[in-house]
């Protein structure tokens, strides 16, 4: 019904007889914002409308409509009927239009295909992603299951641990119990043992008592004659004196033993002391000659110390026989001192020896270890560098040699060398691609601009057609009548529309040469023929994203401006008519 | 090496007099005294019953023959063959009898360790020592014969009594810090008395002659402890063999441990500490010397039986205190010889059979040992030798003892004996050591 509505409008306006207004209004109605709606409606209503789109009756309307449609598609084609009835159509523009449409269709198809491909790709990638997703989900599930399993095992282990701890506790308790049992048993047994022992002792006592009481006759000694003592002495009476003498003897015996052991200890001590003295003497002997030579700076202190030592030694020697303890202390002290010295000396000697050894190793140079290391490192580095250098030289030589008799390798090498160049080319290619893309963008912009231009031109042509009509009407003798009957222009519709169409065709024909001359009033300030670059420059001022919408607005504005302009023009018609005339004539000339 | 002909003996009762001149042997109820050099029978005494114990007096003038079953003791004199002495312990019974060091008194231990009776041969006097303890070694005389130590048990406590042997005067009586005293032994110089606890507790106590406690030594707790104790002849060392198969050596100054000898089943170079180890297997090569490592067969003891066969049970110092021989009961086939100067293992004498007896030569560092077969084994630092006893009728050496001069050995079989004279040449060689 939309299309019907759309189609009804012109009828309403035609009934008013205002041709100019009709055409203007229809253009207003055909604003691009509605285009998509229209197209949708068209596709929807193709089958809803009974009968074909075009019938014998509405050919001009159809034509008009198609023209409008084409114009909206940006095709500057004006299909016009070859006959006023509209039964036959001019083949060329139609074919052109069809061709253009086909082109558009093909392009669209291509785009569609590409889109489909893209979609396929997208869907396949989507599938892939879904698959991955599902796999990941599986993995997640698996890991969750694993986690739960681990949790379970942990729980079990903890349970086990708990039971084991309980067991341990039980065992510990058991052990404690057993230990207490053991302790109690032990005490019991020891008690029993003691009791038994006491009993046994009692029994023994009783037995011995019984034996004594019984006056055992058998218990006897039968000796032929008494023997003398082994030492020949007579036995002594047991007296307190004897007891005391026993004690004394015992102590004497012990004392003897202790004296003996002390003697041996003293002997040992003396031996050890002798050894110590000898050691000390030898140490002094060893140390004294090398003291001044090896110690240098601390020589004075050392000398003082040695003096002290000397003193102590002398004193120790003196007191050796006098006060054992004192002498011993002194001796040990001096020995300790000497020993320390000797140890230091030996350590020093060791160090020296090791140094000497090191020096021997490092070719008798007095180079410290660090510098030696550094030097070594440096030399190693140098050697490495030299090696690299030699290697490079060898390579170069080999390359030279190989290029002389091996083309293939040479090519390979050349390839290697041109790799960089290739890289550079690639870079350039990339730049070029970018430029191309830019260029494409520009072209697109340009196309849009062209479309807009076409529209503007159309508007201008319409203006011109209106002007021509007016002019024509003014020139005709029915000027007054025409003016009167302009309100009821139902019948004169065909007359009005005819030159308009003609003019548009004419304009189309003259497109190549007079493209810019039919510019909208806005852009008409550049009266000198502007080049595409100029156009481009002007268009470039508008941002790309909003260019189409803006241009539409511009177009709308321009169309409304056009209305005003036309009104102004109609007021100052007298001034412009000659110019237009000339222009029209010129056009006619070019046509003929 | 020469061997005498075989002589009869019973109960392995065969002893050389302390002066080394006579050899006394018991054959059933007869006592035979021979001249050592000629082996001629000098005296023949007839006892009242089969003799179970025989002992020379210290002056080699009297021989004590004890018949425990009858509770009887007979003493014979070499100088006066007609002289006789008979001691009857009566109904109380007799378990042990010994000479006092002076050779004029006899100490009898009665049944149940009721008492020790001291019989004087000079005065016929009898004295009693009450409460003697029944233990491994309850009585010990000092080497010079001056003192006697007696272990006693009263009121469930251990005491030691020290008597002066001259008149049996009680010199000291003191309580020992033992749970269950097992033995006591005088040091050879007679100044220190070593007392050790029963195997249930590892404890060795050292007392001075006057009863002061000098030192206490315990190697470990909660395990079977001391098995045997032995003084070195120099009194410098006290060797303690224990159930943990180790020998610990204490010194005589601080009474601390100075060495520990282990008895491992396998010996390698490190354990031998550079000394070669001798092995004396009987077959096929008697004098085979094995270099370490060697393996010694070990018999696992039965843990359920009392007195398990494990641990060091025999310790013997050589006369010069230079070497120590030991036997570990669960390695009965081996005798270990330790060097007391280096404090290291000197040799391991391994036999195919269990070692029955070993004894050091009283004069030289020479060890004789027997394993119950017909061979005699000798070890000295120079090497070892095994000698087949050239006697018909399968003479098997069960025990041996050295003559005090070290000139010959008495080899005791089951009911026979023979003398083994050392080679003069070997003696000369040994003398040069």
TrEMBL record, chain A:
It comes from the Eukaryota. It is found in: Cell junction, Adherens junction; Cytoplasm, Cytoskeleton, Microtubule organizing center, Centrosome, Centriolar satellite. GO terms for cellular component: adherens junction; centriolar satellite; ciliary basal body. One of its GO terms (biological process) is intraciliary transport involved in cilium assembly. It holds the Pfam family ADIP. Residues 310-322 have a biased composition (Basic and acidic residues). Belongs to the ADIP family. PANTHER family: AFADIN- AND ALPHA-ACTININ-BINDING PROTEIN (PTHR46507). This is Synovial sarcoma, X breakpoint 2 interacting protein. It comes from Nothobranchius furzeri (Turquoise killifish).
TrEMBL record, chain B:
InterPro entries: Centrosome-WD_assoc (IPR052778), Quino_amine_DH_bsu (IPR011044), WD40/YVTN_repeat-like_dom_sf (IPR015943), WD40_rpt (IPR001680). GO terms for cellular component: microtubule organizing center; MWP complex. It holds the Pfam family WD40. Gene3D superfamilies: YVTN repeat-like/Quinoprotein amine dehydrogenase. This is WD repeat containing, antisense to TP73. It comes from Nothobranchius furzeri (Turquoise killifish).
């Amino acid at each position: 019904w939309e299309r019907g509505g759309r189609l009804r409008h012109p009828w309403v306006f035609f009934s008013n007889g205002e041709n100019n207004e009709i055409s203007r209004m229809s253009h207003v109605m055909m604003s691009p914002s509605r285009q998509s709606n229209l197209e949708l409606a068209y596709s929807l209503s193709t089958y809803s409308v009974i009968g074909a789109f075009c019938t014998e009756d509405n050919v001009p309307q159809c034509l008009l409509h198609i023209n409008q449609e084409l114009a909206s598609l940006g095709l500057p084609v004006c299909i016009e009927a070859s006959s006023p009835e509209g039964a036959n159509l001019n083949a060329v523009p139609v074919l052109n239009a069809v061709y253009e449409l086909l082109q558009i269709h093909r392009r669209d198809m291509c785009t569609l295909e590409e889109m489909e491909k893209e979609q396929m790709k997208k869907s396949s990638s989507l599938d892939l992603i879904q698959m991955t997703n599902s796999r990941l989900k599986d993995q997640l599930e698996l890991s969750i299951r694993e986690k739960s399993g681990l949790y379970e095992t942990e729980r079990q282990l903890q349970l086990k641990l708990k039971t084991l701890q309980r067991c341990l506790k039980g065992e510990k308790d058991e052990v404690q119990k057993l230990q207490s049992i053991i302790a109690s048993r032990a005490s019991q047994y020891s008690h029993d043992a003691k009791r038994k022992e006491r009993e046994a002792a009692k029994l023994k006592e009783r037995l011995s008592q019984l034996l004594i009481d019984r006056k055992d006759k058998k218990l006897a000694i039968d000796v032929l004659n008494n023997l003398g003592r082994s030492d020949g002495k007579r036995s002594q009476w047991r007296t307190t004196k004897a007891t005391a003498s026993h004690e004394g003897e015992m102590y004497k015996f012990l004392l003897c033993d202790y004296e003996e052991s002390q003697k041996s200890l003293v002997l040992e001590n003396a031996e050890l002391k002798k050894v110590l003295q000898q050691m000390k003497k030898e140490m002094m002997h060893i140390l004294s000659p090398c003291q001044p030579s090896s110690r240098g700076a601390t020589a004075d202190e050392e000398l003082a110390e040695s003096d002290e030592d000397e003193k102590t030694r002398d004193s120790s020697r003196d007191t050796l026989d006098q006060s054992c303890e004192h002498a011993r202390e002194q001796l040990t002290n001096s020995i300790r001192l000497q020993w320390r010295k000797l140890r230091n000396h030996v350590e020093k000697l060791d160090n020296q020896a090791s140094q000497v050894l090191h020096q021997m190793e490092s070719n008798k140079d007095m180079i410290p270890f660090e510098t030696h290391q550094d030097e070594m490192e440096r030399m190693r580095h140098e050697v490495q560098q030299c090696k690299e250098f030699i290697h490079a030289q060898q390579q170069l030589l080999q390359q030279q040699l190989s290029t002389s008799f091996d083309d293939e390798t040479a090519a390979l090498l050349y390839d290697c060398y041109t790799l960089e160049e290739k890289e550079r080319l690639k870079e350039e290619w990339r730049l070029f691609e970018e430029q191309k893309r830019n260029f494409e963008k520009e072209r697109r912009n340009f196309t849009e601009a062209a479309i807009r231009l076409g529209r503007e031109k159309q508007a201008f042509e319409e203006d011109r057609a209106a002007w021509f009509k007016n002019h024509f009407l003014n020139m005709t003798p029915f000027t007054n009548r025409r003016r009167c009957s302009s309100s009821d222009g139902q019948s004169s519709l065909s007359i009005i529309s005819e030159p308009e169409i003609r003019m548009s065709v004419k304009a189309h024909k003259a497109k190549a040469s007079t493209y810019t001359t039919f510019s909208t009033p806005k852009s008409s300030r550049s009266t000198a023929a502007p080049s595409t670059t100029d156009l481009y420059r002007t268009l470039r001022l508008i941002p790309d994203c909003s260019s189409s919408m803006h241009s539409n607005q511009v177009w709308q504005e321009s169309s409304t401006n056009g209305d005003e302009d036309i009104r102004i023009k109609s007021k100052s018609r007298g001034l412009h008519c000659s110019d237009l005339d000339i222009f029209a004539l010129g056009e006619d000339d070019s046509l003929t | 090496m020469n061997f005498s002909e075989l002589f009869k003996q019973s109960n392995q009762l065969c002893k050389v007099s302390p002066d080394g001149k006579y050899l006394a042997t018991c054959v059933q109820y007869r006592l035979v005294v021979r001249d050592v050099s000629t082996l001629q029978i000098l005296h023949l005494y007839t006892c009242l019953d089969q003799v179970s114990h025989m002992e020379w007096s210290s002056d080699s003038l009297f021989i004590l023959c004890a018949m425990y079953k009858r509770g009887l003791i007979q003493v014979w004199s070499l100088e006066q063959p007609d002289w006789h002495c008979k001691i009857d312990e009566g109904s109380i019974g007799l378990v042990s009898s010994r000479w006092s060091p002076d050779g004029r008194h006899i100490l009898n231990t009665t049944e149940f360790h009721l008492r020790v009776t001291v019989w004087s041969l000079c005065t016929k006097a009898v004295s009693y020592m009450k409460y003697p303890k029944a233990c491994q070694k309850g009585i010990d005389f000092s080497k010079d014969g001056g003192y006697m130590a007696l272990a006693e048990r009263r009121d469930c406590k251990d005491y030691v009594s020290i008597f002066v042997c001259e008149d049996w005067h009680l010199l000291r009586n003191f309580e020992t810090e033992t749970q269950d005293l097992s033995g006591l032994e005088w040091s050879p110089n007679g100044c220190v008395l070593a007392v050790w606890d029963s195997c249930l507790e590892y404890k060795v106590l050292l007392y001075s002659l006057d009863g002061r406690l000098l030192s206490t030594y315990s190697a470990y707790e909660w395990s079977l402890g001391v098995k045997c104790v032995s003084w070195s002849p120099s009194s410098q060392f006290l060797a303690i063999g224990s159930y943990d198969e180790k020998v610990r050596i204490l010194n005589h100054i601080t009474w601390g441990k100075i060495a520990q000898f282990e008895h491992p089943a396998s010996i390698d170079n490190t354990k031998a500490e550079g000394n070669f180890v001798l092995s004396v297997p009987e077959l096929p090569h008697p004098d085979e010397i094995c270099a370490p490592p060697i393996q010694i067969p070990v018999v696992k003891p039965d843990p359920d039986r009392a007195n398990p066969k494990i641990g060091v049970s025999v310790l013997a110092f050589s006369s010069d205190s230079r070497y120590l021989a030991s036997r570990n009961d669960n390695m009965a086939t081996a005798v270990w010889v330790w060097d007391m100067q280096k404090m290291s293992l000197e040799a391991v004498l391994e036999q195919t059979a269990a070692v029955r007896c070993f004894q050091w030569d009283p004069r030289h560092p020479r060890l004789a040992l027997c394993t119950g077969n017909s061979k005699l084994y000798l070890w000295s630092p120079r090497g070892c030798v095994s000698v087949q006893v050239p006697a018909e009728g399968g003479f098997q050496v069960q025990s041996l003892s050295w003559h005090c001069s070290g000139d010959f050995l008495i080899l005791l079989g089951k009911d026979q004996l023979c003398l083994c004279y050392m080679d003069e040449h070997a003696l000369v060689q040994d003398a040069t050591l």
